[in-house]
Design goal:
Blueprint lengths: L2 H27 L4 H25 L15 H13 L17 H15 L12 E2 L4 E2 L6 E3 L2 E2 L9 H49 L1
Antiparallel strand pairs: 1-2, 3-4
The structure holds zinc ion.
Length: 210
């Protein structure tokens, strides 16, 4: 790897460490660090952009003419490459840095994604089988959803006592699963944070000893 790319890759890793350490640091310092977290997130995004742009330069991706003689910012490199592609140049994909830890939101998003995928439905959702007396025709509401391709015979309003119990149990089970997933994510973040903090303490000790 080119030296500039290598250092940028390390910068992303350091910002990953900054993100990972925030949760336990918030406890340790007894401070709300949400704003610091936002800034770290922004810096991380910029470092990833810079890494991608540097990789385009490194791969000699074609660029349109620069407007100035100064060095281009990462976004300008992307824009100049896109313009060159529109004019017929081959598209080069920017490289992605090695991620040390997925950041909190990504981890939670991942959990939610996995959760939603397990709930995906492929068959058409049936309608309620109850007869709505007030309207003199069959109820047109959608049947209560129990899981992938699994429905109760009635809409939520028309569930009988037993169906309602099944429905509520299922809902509580899902909520409990979600809570456990989240707790797992938080536990992992704490663990990563403690690991980073130990590394920082060691680095600091070495610097002060030498
Ligand atoms: Zn109904």
């Amino acid at each position: 790897m080119d030296r500039g790319l290598e250092i940028l890759d390390e910068m992303v890793a350091v910002l990953d460490e900054c993100g990972a350490v925030l949760l336990m640091l918030s406890d340790e310092a007894a401070l709300n660090l949400d704003e610091l977290g936002e800034v770290v997130d922004v810096a991380r995004g910029e470092a990833i952009n810079a890494f991608g742009a540097a990789s385009l330069l490194n791969k000699h991706a074609e660029l349109s003419e620069s407007w100035t003689g100064d060095l281009s910012r990462p976004r300008a490199i992307y824009a100049r490459h896109s313009k060159a592609v529109r004019n017929g140049a081959a598209r080069v994909k920017p490289a992605v840095p090695t991620v040390r830890f997925p950041m909190a939101e990504e981890a939670i998003e991942h959990v939610l994604d996995a959760h939603q995928q397990s709930g995906e439905t492929s068959v058409e959702r049936p309608t309620c089988s109850a007869f709505a007396k007030s309207k003199g025709r069959r109820c047109t509401k959608l049947a209560a959803w129990m899981g992938p391709n699994e429905f109760l015979p009635h809409c939520y309003g028309h569930l009988d006592e037993d169906e309602r119990r099944q429905y509520d149990e299922r809902r509580d089970r899902r909520a409990e699963q979600e809570r456990l997933h989240r707790a797992e994510v938080v536990a992992r973040l704490y663990e990563e944070g403690r690991m980073v903090a130990a590394e920082w303490a060691e680095r600091r000790r070495q610097r002060h000893d030498s």
